[in-house]
Design a protein that fits this description.
60% of the residues lie in helices and 0% in strands.
Amino acid sequence: MLIPVKEKKLMDVKLGELPSWILMRDFTPKGIAGAFQRGYYRYYNKYVNVKRGGVAGISMVLAAYVLFNYCRCYKELKHERLRKYH
């Protein structure tokens, strides 16, 4: 049975089909918001909403937040690192 390219998941798309698969995505604000919502619910149900959950779900969010802020402030941090204090 042949599955249309539009209905395939990213991991199932072959390299030659990738440009046409990307062009078939919904890039409207509603489509982007829906993609973020699906990602949030997938993450929440996999790591946070479990019977015997630990700190893994929250710690990944915290690590992503720290990494994002480090990348955002890297230019200033690099400037401070090269400054001499004497």
